[in-house]
Design brief:
The protein has one domain (2-79). It is built from 5 helices and 3 strands, in the order H-H-E-H-H-E-E-H. It has helices at residues 2-8, 21-24, 30-37, 41-50, 69-79; strands at residues 27-29, 57-59, 64-68. A 3-stranded antiparallel β-sheet has the order 1-3-2. Helix 3 crosses helix 4 (41-50).
Length: 84
């Protein structure tokens, strides 16, 4: 629940208002997204290789991967109710 709150600026059950990283940054690095989702960066890399996870773009001769925040938001909403 916290990750959803953090990414969507909802009130966390503990009463704290979570930050909204998706509205602050239009493009997230792999590290930023992995941290926000509570995943290892290697998981993000594996997901890209097998076609899972949010859509991404490559910058600077394909050396830098970035995740558009709107794509991340869509992907998270699409995960609601799915089995793991």
């Amino acid at each position: 629940m916290f990750i959803f709150c953090y990414l969507f600026d909802l009130r966390h059950p503990c009463g704290m208002k979570a930050g909204n990283v998706l509205d602050v940054k239009p493009l997230l690095s792999q590290r930023e997204l992995a941290r926000a989702l509570g995943l290892a960066e290697s998981t993000m890399e594996t997901w890209r290789l097998v076609g899972k996870g949010p859509k991404f773009i490559r910058l600077a001769a394909h050396r830098h991967v970035r995740y558009p925040s709107e794509e991340v938001r869509r992907w998270i909403l699409a995960q609601v109710g799915k089995d793991a």
